[in-house]
Amino acid sequence: MAGEVFAADEQSDVEVDTIRWVRLASNVLQAEGVRGEAELSMLFVDRAAIADLKRRFLSREGPTDVLAFPIDDEGVESGRSPDSGGSGPGVVPPEPSELPILLGDVVICPEVARENAADRDRSYDDEMALLVVHGILHLLGMDHADDDEAVVMERRERELLDRFHKGSS
């Protein structure tokens, strides 16, 4: 199994088929070799929410279509410090191999996706599929900060979309 994907539609501006995007995300995780107790969440939010996240975490203004927030894969610490994972003396923390791998969160704004789809002369579903795949690849360590990375990431996006989105549409 490729792990578990959780999705929440926290906006009401554009209809979102969360089951479809969970299925795509699961297929992408499996194709990328993610196995076992991995967890990923996808949140579909409105313009104001994604603009707030972008401002708070990237120090940039305005809405965007997708943000990815990877979670570091460091093990749980022991001890009683806040957020250290332990609950006091005598409690044996779980082995790292027993813990789920928390990949992170992919946050998508369907309203911005719809606008981008119209601007790029593609369907809303194609744009949403691209954002799901793009966000997951970011969580798995891919980037497009320089031209070489962008070429590799875009190629992988096309391969995954051809396999799991365009082949199933």
Main attributes of the structure:
alpha/beta, 169 residues, single chain, 4 strands
Overview of the structural elements:
The protein is an alpha/beta fold and 169 residues long. The protein contains five helices and four strands. The longest helix has 20 residues. It is globular and about 35 Å long. About 9% of the residues have low confidence.
Task: Summarize the amount of helix as a percent range.
Answer: 40-55%
The coarse overall form would be globular
- The fraction of residues in strands falls at 15-25%
**Order of secondary-structure elements:** EHEHEEHHH
**Taking strands numbered 1, 2, ... along the chain, how are they ordered across the largest sheet?**
1-2-4-3
How far the N terminus sits from the C terminus, by CA atoms, comes to 23 Å
Oligomer: single chain
**What does the main sheet amount to?**
4 strands, mixed
What's the short version?
By secondary structure, this protein is α/β, with parallel strands linked by helices. It is 43% helix and 15% strand.
Task: Please outline the helices and strands.
Elements: E1 4-9, H1 18-31, E2 38-44, H2 47-58, E3 66-70, E4 101-108, H3 110-119, H4 124-139, H5 147-166
Parallel strand pairs: 1-2, 2-4
Antiparallel strand pairs: 3-4
Helix pairs in contact: 1-4, 3-4, 4-5
